Amino acid sequence: MKRRDVLRGMGLATAAAGLAACAPGGNGAAGGASEVRLQWKMVTSWPTNFPGLGTGAARLAERITQATGGRITVKVFGSGELVPPFEVFDAVSRGTAEIGHSAAYYWRGKAAAAPFFCAVPFGLNAQEMTAWLRFGGGLELWRELYAPFNLVPFPAGNTGVQLAGWFRKPIEGVADLRGLKMRIPGLGGDVMQALGAVPVNLPGAEIFTSLQSGAIDAAEWVGPYNDLAFGLHRVAKYAYYPGWQEPGPTLEAMFHKPAFDALPEDLKAIVEACCAAVNDEMLAEYTARNQQALDLLVREHGTQLRRLPEDVLVALKRAADEVLEALAGADPFARRVYDSMRAFRAQAQAWHSVSEEAFYQARR
Q1: pLDDT digits (tens, 9 = 90+) for 226-272
Q2: pLDDT of 106-150, one tens digit each?
Q3: N or C: which end of the chain has fewer CB within 10 A?
Q4: Cis geometry, peptide bond prior to residue 115 (ω within 30 degrees of 0)
Q5: What is the DSSP track for 32-101?
């Protein structure tokens, strides 16, 4: 195990704790911690080895296995191999598997505030989301929400801003959204429904066939890197941006709480370091791969890349504000999370106006 693999993406304090166990002959814990030998299962919502998402889960399993020197060995089960993609939460909650890799917005029916920890329409981008979770109180709220389900969540992946989706017909105005059957999960689906669309929640593996058969008219998945791998360009001609619905979607590694709590402190630190490393690595991978894939889609496959009309974006933003406020008004915990995120967004946006945004404008 190379030290840079643990250091990547982590604060030095947490990484140092993890490195204590990675050092030759070191176990970082008193007593018999070095004798711990655990065989853990990881269930995911992604197809096995699917680029970015599936490989990110596999990378996390490999990191934990290597960084612990085999004290924790993690075996990955892709979508449907051990449990269906939308049953990952329950499987880890009851201890069928010790780790799950998925997206929190799939669990809206179990905890109303869950989608806030994945993606919020017009919310935080990847950089802001990671900052809110690590330094803005977001992770503490997330763990408080999941505690009654015997789960300990960590951020463990981010794709960055996604595409708005793939459409079989062009979108010229708000009227074109009415009656549109679209695969779009989470709060983004609620927003589309508010404008007259029909949101459909499907696992990724079913999107292509549903578009091909006409069961749905449009779909958002991730972005060019993943969408090309799924062949969505073969069944939908129009790709729209910007990805208003998922500006910084965080993926989760959730651990069965009794299993995680039983770990010695050095192994807990290693697990945290590995999750953080994979969280940062996934964003780097998507940043490197998305434009390469988009070039292929446009130049070789004839994809029509279009920006959503301004009136559509305005309507989506208005509807998003209403949906989020309604959710916060109906659930006290969602109110706490939404207010925390909104306050952090205002802070980050103020700084980014003189840093990131100003730099982008200057670089042109």
Answers
A1: 999 999 999 999 999 999 999 999 999 999 999 999 999 999 999 99
A2: 999 999 999 999 999 999 999 999 999 999 999 999 999 999 999
A3: C
A4: no
A5: TGGG--EEEEEEESS-TT-TTHHHHHHHHHHHHHHHTTTSEEEEEE-TTTSS-GGGHHHHHHTTSSSEEE
165: left (phi over 0), alpha (psi -120 to 50) or beta: left
- Find, among 184, 8, 24, the residue nearest to 103 by Cα: 184
The answer to whether 335 touches 328, Cβ cutoff 8 Å, is: yes
How many CB atoms within 10 Å of residue 197? Answer: 20
pTM (2 d.p.): 0.89
Beta carbons of 65 and 74 less than 8 angstroms apart: yes
Give the span between the Cα atoms of 278 and 125, in whole angstroms: 17
Contact 267, 192 (CB under 8 A): no
Q: What gap in Å lies between CA 109 and CA 92, rounded to an integer?
A: 16
**C-beta neighbour count of 307 within 10 angstroms:** 11
What span, in angstroms and rounded, lies between the C-alpha atoms of 75 and 96? 13
Residues 6+ apart with CB under 8 A from 168: 211, 217, 218, 235, 236, 237, 238
CA distance 102 to 96: 15
